[in-house]
Amino acid sequence: GSRVFGNKKQLKILTDIMWPIIAKLAREEMDRAVTEGKHVCVIDAAMLLEAGWQNLVHEVWTVVIPETEAVRRIVERDGLSDAAAQSRLQSQMSGQQLVEQSHVVLSTLWEPHITQRQVEKAWALLQKRLPKTHQALN
């Protein structure tokens, strides 16, 4: 991470190699799920929009938090300095850019049970958007 997140040229080299491979694998997994009768596939991809994979999905759901909280969590989770965490964030789309391209926006700023309620409500609304033949997915 330290080699590529602070160096846009190195990051581009890495993403140009990896993103097409990961997209192909994701598409194969989704195709397999459809053949197994699944109607909803969830892709957990932090860089989905940056990679241009929105054409692989019907909806984009984004989780946002304030930048200060994101830095705190990166420092805590990865043991990075504030500056390294900030550099990592700056290599990603801004929260505003993500929200503008998303169908559903959630926040994990509050207690876990609040986030759980947000997700359950968003899932229930998704069920209503699905064709009638696919709505028994709860």
Automatic annotation (TrEMBL):
Question: Which spans of this chain does the record mark as coiled coil?
Answer: none
Q: What GO MF terms are annotated? A: ATP binding; dephospho-CoA kinase activity; pantetheine-phosphate adenylyltransferase activity
Keyword annotations for this protein?
A: ATP-binding, Nucleotide-binding
UniProt cross-references to Gene3D superfamilies, sorted A to Z: P-loop containing nucleotide triphosphate hydrolases
User: What protein is this chain from?
Assistant: Bifunctional coenzyme A synthase-like protein
What Pfam families does the database record attribute to this sequence? CoaE (PF01121)
**Looking at the record's lineage, which domain of life comes first?**
Eukaryota
Q: Name one GO biological process term.
A: coenzyme A biosynthetic process
